[in-house]
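Morning run. Coffee first, then this:
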Amino acid sequence: MGPSQPITLKRDCACVEIPAGTPVTLRAGTVVRIMQSLGGSYTITDNIGAMFRVDAKDADALGLSSSAAPETAAPTELSEKSVRDQLKTVFDPEIPVNIVDLGLVYSCALAALAEGGTRVDAKMTMTAPGCGMANVLKADVEGKLSRIPGVKEVHVEVVFDPPWTPARMSDAAKLQLGLDTDYDPSDPRLRVL
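And here it is:
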């Protein structure tokens, strides 16, 4: 998706500054452009190029109806596939690729709870250790996994070992981003002299 036409915010809008992860409020009348609309949120930019993430619940500030918000439906049953599919509805706010195909999800395990229901434990990472969006993406994962019927507990841990590299991306993500599917960042021919 390329940038939208300029949009004037209809009301004050709570958002998160990207990549810092800092909550901010953009004032009514601010002119923005939608850069991407994926996974239930919008990435917008203002007239000086700063980027912000706007939740679907605030679509009306962008002049969009909340029914047009890009929220995804929860799966109808619990399985490893439904968990993985739900994780594919979480997108990096700067890169239009889901966190599974980006290789940010390191593990995801389901465990039955004694009192009934299921606990989902996930380990994920960020593309950079200092990423300010870690808590935002973690909250997205927790929220989306908790919507799956039968899930009673969700625990998401952000880890940095092993470090993320572009080699962790799926071939589909590499193609989407214009990288060679054989891309290997450790290839000595790619080193900058």
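The domain at 80-176 is CATH 3.30.300.130 (GMP Synthetase; Chain A, domain 3). Good start to the day.
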